[in-house]
Design goal:
Largest sheet: 4 strands, antiparallel
Strand order of the largest sheet: 2-3-1-4
Helix content: 25-40%
Shape: globular
Radius of gyration: 14 Å
Distance between the termini: 24 Å
Oligomer: single chain
Number of domains: 1
């Protein structure tokens, strides 16, 4: 049920921003990790070059699934080490979800229709 789901809005504010293409390549490299992650309903990466920000919106099946990820070694240690910054995180209630397309591979997944 959508009302049981929790979302995590993540913002990385960068001093030096990679190009959109470089970020997409890095996102694609992480695709398999998230595609098979238990408890993760969806994830979308986003980029705002003008503000030198990028991030992701995760939707988890439950608060427990969100907390499991938020306390994982991947999130606590590996993500900040990889990017050199600790992201800002906001936990959100999930409203209605609309999914019109599903990406099933990392290549050009940001263009899934």
């Amino acid at each position: 049920m959508a009302t049981d789901r929790k979302a995590m809005w993540v913002v990385f504010k960068m001093d030096k921003m990679l190009s959109t293409q470089e970020l997409r390549e890095r996102f694609s490299a992480a695709y398999d990790i998230f595609r098979d992650m238990p408890g993760l309903f969806s994830k979308t990466w986003w980029i705002n070059q003008e503000k030198k920000e990028w991030g992701a919106l995760y939707v988890f099946d439950s608060e427990k699934d969100l907390q499991t990820y938020a306390n994982s070694d991947l999130w606590v240690n590996k993500v900040p080490a990889k990017w050199g910054v600790i992201p800002e995180v906001t936990v959100l209630e999930v409203g209605s979800l609309l999914t019109k397309g599903i990406a099933t591979q990392s290549v050009k997944s940001w263009e899934a229709k």
